[in-house]
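new request in #modeling-help
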Amino acid sequence: DQQVKQNSPSLSVQEGRISILNCDYTNSMFDYFLWYKKYPAEGPTFLISISSIKDKNEDGRFTVFLNKSAKHLSLHIVPSQPGDSAVYFCAASGSNTGKLIFGQGTTLQVKP
Amino acid sequence: DTAVSQTPKYLVTQMGNDKSIKCEQNLGHDTMYWYKQDSKKFLKIMFSYNNKELIINETVPNRFSPKSPDKAHLNLHINSLELGDSAVYFCASSQPTGTGAYNEQFFGPGTRLTVL
């Protein structure tokens, strides 16, 4: 059973436009959510996180939105840049376990 | 200065062999993890150690044995390798916040294991 799902395997956007990556989860015990970015042959790199007590967290061009009632979060990248092209993983944890449950990733391609 | 490093980066071996992957972090973190990314690209946690003590042990065959000689190192030893063990293995570390929660995890570059 996949507790964290990223239903779009890929996304292509034009440089300068907004990229929106989506993530759904099923476990209501999750209270901390993270987005990671991964380039080929490298490890995932932490991007941004949000606690369940918030519904929005912003860091520069990156904003994460959390809708607890819908068990849905999204990552907005504005404006998108070609260097943002990578695989983006959504992850969730709960109950102070430190255990991250990852989605299957969305490959973002930003075209110049 | 690499924060989380793993060796080797690539490992090709025959079925039935025993191999080890090493991980070191210089971030001063207390907690370290091993993840497996399979052919379908799912990243799944295998083990976690906090200050050399095992705290997470997922449903992993007992052919896999983590060892933490100190809190900066977490090695993964795999006995009797099988074809299905082929995957990319990532090490990660994080620091508990002090309130029982954990901060974000920092990942190593991964070790691509191929079992022939």
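bot summary: The mean pLDDT of chain B is 91.
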